[in-house]
Design goal:
Number of strands of chain A: 12
Number of helices of chain A: 0
Order of helices and strands of chain A: EEEEEEEEEEEE
Shape of chain B: globular
Helix content of chain B: under 10%
Mean pLDDT of chain A: 91
Number of domains of chain A: 1
CATH superfamily of chain A: Immunoglobulins
CATH architecture of chain A: Sandwich
Largest interface: A-B, 23 and 22 residues
Number of helices of chain B: 0
Helix content of chain A: under 10%
Radius of gyration of chain A: 14 Å
CATH superfamily of chain B: Immunoglobulins
Low-confidence stretches of chain A: none
Structural class of chain B: mainly beta
Low-confidence stretches of chain B: none
Shape of chain A: globular
Number of domains of chain B: 1
CATH topology of chain B: Immunoglobulin-like
Largest sheet of chain B: 7 strands, mixed
Oligomer: heterodimer
Strand content of chain B: over 45%
Chain lengths: 117, 111
């Protein structure tokens, strides 16, 4: 069965320092993986996606993530945090359900990023 | 393209009332979804649809109903509202297993 684990529920960094948000997944097939960001009282915005092309994926606002199949990980990074990066981040895996043949999206529980001045 | 639109943005219901949350997408996506997000929590899937006329339950379907008569529209019906349905509701659409596009959400309070 598919699953997504976001290893940290809260992460605090100082402005200008690197960001690392960790995500591990399990999947039976070849998954697609996504990171979404949700600012307070807002909807979810796609940051980046992996869909079996390049394993290092670049997204918006300077974020990137590397798909590591051997480690079943898809960690999100940014070289230098900005105050505007403070938000909730969700790792999501999309996979084909073997029974129904439909695509399912499994959400992680989220990581709240705090950026300190 | 407007993407995914939801109405209303906010609503307050009394216990026992009913309402329909509207969701429309203009990207010709086959897949559409309804999620709820409780304060400080992640998203839980209520219902989803893989095409017009086809719907299926997610992990928290009780107290809700959906229909999908067109590709564009996927309304969510709440019957006999209860305080436990106080939440933020998000509609999303996608093409097969590709990224989901989310609407701005509907903030519902049941008192």
């Amino acid at each position: 069965a598919q699953s997504v684990t976001q290893l940290d529920s809260h992460v605090s960094v100082s402005e200008g320092t690197p960001v690392l948000l960790r995500c591990n997944y399990s999947s039976s097939y070849s998954p697609s993986l996504f990171w979404y960001v949700q600012h307070p009282n807002k909807g979810l915005q796609l940051l980046l996606k992996y869909t079996s092309a390049a394993t290092l994926v670049k997204g918006i606002n300077g974020f990137e993530a590397e798909f590591k199949k051997s480690e079943t990980s898809f960690h999100l990074t940014k070289p230098s945090a900005h105050m505007s990066d403070a938000a909730e981040y969700f790792c999501v895996v999309s996979d084909k359900d073997s029974g129904s043949g439909t695509y399912k999206y499994i959400f992680g529980t989220g990581t709240r990023l705090k950026v300190l001045a | 393209n407007a993407g995914v639109t939801q109405t209303p943005k906010f609503r307050i219901l009394k216990i026992g009332q009913s309402m329909t949350l509207q969701c429309t997408q203009d990207m010709n996506h086959n897949y559409m979804y309804w999620y709820r997000q409780d304060p400080g929590m992640g998203l839980k899937l209520i219902y989803y649809s893989v095409g017009a006329g086809i719907t299926d339950k997610g992990e928290v379907p009780n107290g809700y109903n959906v229909s999908r008569s067109t590709t564009e529209d996927f309304p969510l019906r709440l019957e006999l509202a209860a305080p436990s349905q106080t939440s933020v509701y998000f509609c999303a659409s996608s093409s097969l297993g590709y990224e989901q596009y989310f609407g701005p959400g509907t903030r519902l309070t049941v008192t």
